[in-house]
């Protein structure tokens, strides 16, 4: 069992946590996920927007789907998620207070991931006797410029641009413990319909994430998560802003089986240090249902 995208469905770039992202899954297994998440604090949906003193609250519902398959004999999966978000709160834009209340569909997230070594494509019967050692994996996450966006407003749910996030991950198991390390970079296209009729660009955001996971005999598991991300300095019509990001976040997750096909996951995260924006708290609850693959 693995966790499909949830917080990654929000345009938070390199900030989402996803323990067990590169775990092996039997070929042909499908996952449906429904979840709710709430954030509160200095949340900046477009990390390139020069707002300060953010006090924004979001409540989101997310639907996701994933399928495991074989890619050249290695374990792979495709997953997708889309949120519907309600946002309200206040912030300062260039020293002027602004207020925003808006609801709408957020940007969908699509991702293809595959094992490079250590996780062969297995049927359910083969998977029952398989033991993980070291898995090396890679993924590519893509978000198109869809969803709610008003070019005459500062704060929006989406950012009116494409984003591409390649990632390399390592997952090492030892008894009931699993340690993970992920290195990623998020690249953005320009937003040519930014507030004021200008073009807004953003440098890549680079992220390093670690997860320490403990599996329990009942099928439950918990994890401690931490991430550091930096970069993302933005430009307006080619002029750089003072918004370089160097931020730390920590979090924890708990997954509990309900029965053979269903599980519930709770995830918490909080900002520890934020050089520029994105110092917020988040809580998410998801329900996951799985079928297929000989289950």
Structure description:
By secondary structure, the protein is mainly β. The protein has one helix at 124-127; strands at 29-42, 51-71, 74-93, 96-105, 109-117, 134-143, 163-174, 177-188, 200-202, 205-215, 221-231, 234-236, 239-240, 245-257, 262-274, 279-292. A 12-stranded antiparallel β-barrel has the order 1-2-3-5-6-7-8-10-11-14-15-16. The chain has a 3-stranded antiparallel sheet with strand order 9-12-13, with no helix packed on it. The longest helix has 4 residues, at 124-127. The chain is elongated, with a radius of gyration of 19 Å. It starts with 28 loop residues before the first strand and ends with a strand.
Number of helices: 1
Considering the protein shown, what is the CATH homologous superfamily? Autotransporter beta-domain
Q: Going across the major beta sheet, what is the strand order?
A: 1-2-3-5-6-7-8-10-11-14-15-16
Structural class: mainly beta
**CATH 2nd-level architecture:** Beta Barrel
Please estimate the helix content: under 10%
For the record, give the distance between the C-alpha atoms at the N and C termini, rounded to a whole number. 12 Å
The counted number of beta strands is 16
CATH topology category name: Lipocalin
In the CATH scheme, the class would be Mainly Beta
């Amino acid at each position: 069992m693995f966790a499909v995208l949830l917080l990654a469905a929000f345009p938070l770039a390199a900030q989402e946590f996803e323990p067990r992202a590169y775990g092996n899954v039997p070929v042909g297994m499908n996952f449906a996920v429904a979840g709710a998440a709430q954030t509160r604090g200095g949340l900046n949906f477009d990390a390139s927007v020069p707002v300060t003193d953010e006090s924004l609250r979001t409540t989101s519902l997310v639907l996701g789907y994933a399928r495991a398959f074989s890619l050249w004999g290695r374990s792979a999966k495709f997953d997708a998620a889309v949120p519907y978000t309600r946002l309200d709160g206040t912030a300062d834009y260039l020293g002027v207070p602004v207020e925003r209340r808006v609801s709408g569909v957020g940007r969908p997230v699509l991702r293809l991931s595959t094992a490079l070594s250590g996780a062969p494509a297995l049927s359910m019967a083969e998977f029952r006797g398989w033991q993980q050692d070291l898995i090396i994996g890679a993924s590519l996450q893509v978000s198109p410029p869809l969803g709610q966006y008003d070019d005459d407003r500062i704060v929006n749910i989406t950012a009116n641009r494409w984003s591409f996030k390649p990632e390399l991950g390592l997952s090492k198991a030892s008894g009931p413990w699993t340690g993970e390390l992920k290195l990623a970079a998020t690249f953005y296209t320009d937003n040519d319909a930014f507030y004021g009729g200008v073009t807004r660009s953003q440098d890549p955001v680079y992220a390093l994430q670690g997860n320490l996971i403990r599996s329990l005999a009942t099928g439950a598991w918990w994890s401690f998560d931490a991430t550091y991300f930096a970069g993302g300095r933005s430009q307006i019509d080619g002029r750089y802003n003072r918004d370089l990001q160097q931020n730390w976040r920590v979090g924890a997750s708990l997954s509990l089986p309900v029965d053979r096909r269903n599980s519930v996951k709770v995830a918490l995260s909080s900002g520890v240090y934020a050089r520029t924006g994105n110092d917020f708290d988040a809580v998410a609850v998801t329900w996951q249902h799985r079928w297929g693959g000989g289950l």
